[in-house]
Amino acid sequence: MGTHLPSTEFDGTAVDDQREAEAEAVLGAPAEPMVQLLGPDGVMGRDPVFSEYADRIDAGKLRGFYADMAAIRRFDVEATALQRQGQLALWVPLTGQEAAQIGSGRASQPQDYIFPTYREHGVALTRNVDLAELLRQFRGVSNGGWNPKDTNFHLYTLVLAAQTPHAVGYAMGLQRDQKLAAANAAPDQPQEPKAAVMVYFGDGASSEGDVHESMVFASSYNAPVVFFCQNNHWAISVPSTVQTRVPLADRAKGYGFPGIRVDGNDVVAVHAVTEWALERARQGRGPVLIEAFTYRVGAHTTADDPTKYRGSDEEDQWRAKDPLERLEKYLRSQDLADDAFFAKVKADGDELAAYVRRTAHDLESPDIRTAFANTYAEAHPLVAEELAWFEEYSAGFADQPPAGGAGSHQAATDGAAN
Amino acid sequence: MTTMTIAKAINEGLRATLGNNPRTLLMGEDIGPLGGVYRVTDGLIAEFGPDRVVDTPLAESGIVGTAIGLALSGYLPVCEIQFDGFVFPGFNQITTQLAKMHSRSNGNLTVPVVIRIPYGGGIGSIEHHSESPEALFAHTAGLRIITPSNAHDAYWMIQQAVDCQDPVIVFEPKRRYWLKGDVDTESPGASADPFKAHVLREGTDATIVAYGPLVPVALAAANAAAEDGRKVEVIDLRSISPIDFDTVTASVRKTGRLIVAHEAPTFGGIGGEIAARISERAFHSLEAPVIRVGGFHMPYPVAKVEEDYLPDIDRILEALDRALSY
C-alpha cells in the first residue's frame, strides 16, 4: 500500500497497489498529512496552524457539538425506521459523518450560503432547518421542502455535483455585491458582514465534470467558496480507490488553491479547518478544497445493501474511530460533561425523534395545482390550458373532491408514482 | 427608427439592458475583447468592464451552472453558447437544474437566466455548428424559448428575455445575423409580448408557420405562390415555448390549410406539436392534413450537401401543392 492513501486509515479496503505506486512515481512527494486534533482515543493534539482555531472552541460549544452530533444520529435512526415502515420512499443515512457535518456547519456564519448535496442532514441542523421539513422530499410531498432564503441553506440536489457550479456562481454574486456596496456606501455607513459560500459533495461526485468546471471557475475568478468534500469512501458500491489515485484534497493543487485533508471524524479539526477556510474566503483570498476523510457506516441509501460490496471488518475499523465516542471520552476526561449531560442529550434526541415521527406522519400531500402554479414564475398559456382541462376533468367526478391527495383516480395515480 | 443587422440589434439590446440594470451581466467564451465569434457582444466589455462582460473558461456546464448561482444571488446573467452543437455539455444544467429550480423550490426561488444560442445551418460550416436542437429544450417544462427573425424583434426580445423571471433560451438564427431591418429603439410596438406570434402576411388559401431562419423563406414562398394566384398567410411563431396556438388556430380557421416549416428534423419536432394541437383545436376547419416541412432524420449533413437538407422555397411550395390538392 502506498503513502497517498494512509494505510492506517484505510486498512481492510481493497487498494490497487500498482496504481498507488504509479501515482507515487508520478507525484514524487507523499500526500500532505491529514489534519487531526482529537484522536480516536479522546486525546487532543496540537497543530501549528489549526490549533489556534480550535482554541476558540469553548467548553459550551464543545458540548454543543456533541449534542448536535447525537441529535442528528438519533434523527438518522428515526428516519431510517420511518423508511422501513413505508413512511418514506427513501432515506439517505449519514451515520458516521456527524463530525464532518456538524463541525463544518457550525463553522459557517448566518450570512454564508450553503449548497448541500442530499446527505447533509447534520449541516441542515446547524442552519436551523426544521428537520421534519427535510423529510418532505423523502416522503414524496415536495421536491424541496424548505425555503432556502430563510436559512441560507439551499435545497438538496440529487443530480451529483450539479450544485457545485451554482455555489461558485453564487460566490461570484457575493463578490459583485461587495463591489456594488463599496461603491455606493456612505463613508460612515456600517458595512455588511462579508459572506462566503460552502458547497458539499462526496467522493463519488468528485468524478463528475461539474466539480472540475466549478473549481476552474472558482480559481479563475478567485470566488469566495469552500468546497467541502466528504470522502466517505464509497460511491454506492464503488470504493474511492476507483475514483481517484491521489488524495482528493491534492486535486486542489491543479486548480491553484489550497486543498486540505482533515480527519472527518474529528469534529474539532473539521471545525477549525472549515473556519480557517471560510474566513479566508470572506477576506477575498479565494477558494479552498477541504476533504473530510470519513466513512459512511451504513448504506448509501436504504435501497442498497453494503454487505454485497464490503466487509464488516472494514466497518468495524471505522466504528472504532466514531466521532461521538471520541468526543465523549474527551469531555469526560476533561470534566467538561457529566452523566447528567449525556442523559439529557439522549432524552433530547428521543424527543426530537418523536417530533419528527409525528410531523412526518402529518405531512400533507400537496394539491397538484401547486405544481401547475410553480412550473413557471410568470403566467404561461400552456400551463393555464392544461390546468383548465384538469379542473374540468376533475369536476366530472361529482362525488369526489378533485386532486389534492386521496380522491380522484388522477390523484391516486400521482400518489403511487411518487 | 434606425436600420441595423440582427447581430447589431442584439448587441444594442444587450447594451441597453446592461445600461438599464446594474445586475445584468454577460458571460460566455470569447465574448470579451473578441466580441464573440459572431461579434454580437462587440465593444461591450470596453463599455461595461470585465465584471459585467465575463470572458469565461471554455466550459458550457460551468457557464450555465455558475449563471444559475449568480441568478440565485440576485443577478441577471445572459450566457452565450458559442454554437448550437456545443450546448450539450450544458444540457444537464439547463434541463435538470435551470428548468426546475423554481418548481422544486415551491416557487421560493427564481432563476432568471438567459441563454443565447446561435442556431441553424446555411453558413457552410463544419460538424456541430449548424444544428437546430430547440425541440429538445421545448420538451422541458420550466424553460421558455424564443427566436427572433428580424432586427426589431432581436433588439427587443433579448431585453424582454432578461426582464422575464423565468429562464429563457434565445435561439438566434445565425445565418440571418447579417440581415438588415428597421428597428424602433423607442418602442417595441407589436413586439411588446415576445411570446406572441406575428401574422406577417395575410392570406385565405393556406397558412405557413415558420420561425427564426425560415421566416424569410416562408415569405418568399408565399410571394412565389401569389404569382400563381394563391393567397398564403405567413406566421412568424417567434416563441417556441410557449407556442401562441391562438394565433395559429385563428389563421387555420380562416385558411383551412397549414404548413409548418423549420430546419430541425421533422420527426419529433415542433412542427409535430403544432400539427397535433391544431388537429385538436381546429379539426373541422382543416381541409387537408397539416403538412410539416423540416430536416431529415439524420445528423446535420456536411456543408457541401446542406442545401439538399435545408427546407427551401421549393420544398415549402411542394408542401403547399400537396395541401391544396385535397
Total strand count of chain B, please? Answer: 14
Average pLDDT of chain B = 98
Largest sheet of chain A: 5 strands, parallel
Largest sheet of chain B: 7 strands, mixed
**Distance N to C terminus of chain A:** 46 Å
Helix/strand order of chain B: EHEHEHEHHEHEHEEEEHEEHEHEHH
Low-confidence stretches of chain A: 1-15, 404-418
Class from helix and strand fractions of chain B: alpha/beta
Determine the oligomeric state from the structure. heterodimer
Summarize the structure.
The complex is a heterodimer of chains A (418) and B (326). Chain A has 418 residues and is of the alpha/beta class.
How would you portray this structure in words?
- The complex is a heterodimer of chains A (418) and B (326).
- Chain A is an alpha/beta fold.
- Chain A is built from 19 helices and seven strands.
- Chain A has helices at 7-10, 17-27, 51-54, 59-84, 98-105, 121-126, 131-139, 148-151, 163-184, 209-220, 240-243, 252-255, 267-282, 312-319, 323-333, 339-362, 368-374, 381-395, 409-417; strands at 113-115, 197-202, 225-231, 234-235, 238-239, 259-263, 288-293.
- In chain A, the strands form two sheets. Chain A has a five-stranded parallel β-sheet with strand order 1-2-3-7-6, sandwiched between helices. A two-stranded antiparallel ribbon of chain A has the order 4-5.
- In chain A, β6 (259-263), α13 (267-282) and β7 (288-293) form a beta-alpha-beta unit.
- The two termini of chain A are 46 Å apart.
- Chain B is an alpha/beta fold and 326 residues long.
- Chain B has helices at 6-20, 44-48, 60-72, 91-98, 101-104, 134-138, 151-163, 215-227, 245-255, 270-282, 306-309, 313-324, and strands at 2-5, 24-28, 53-55, 76-80, 114-119, 144-146, 168-173, 180-183, 198-201, 206-210, 232-236, 239-241, 258-265, 291-295.
- In chain B, the strands form three sheets. In chain B, strands 3-2-4-5-7-6-12 form a seven-stranded mixed β-sheet, sandwiched between helices. Chain B has a five-stranded mixed β-sheet with strand order 9-11-10-13-14, sandwiched between helices. A two-stranded antiparallel sheet of chain B has the order 1-8.
- The N and C termini of chain B lie far apart (44 Å).
- The model of chain B has no long low-confidence stretch (mean pLDDT 98).
- At the A-B interface, α9, α10 and α17 of A face α3, α4 and α5 of B.
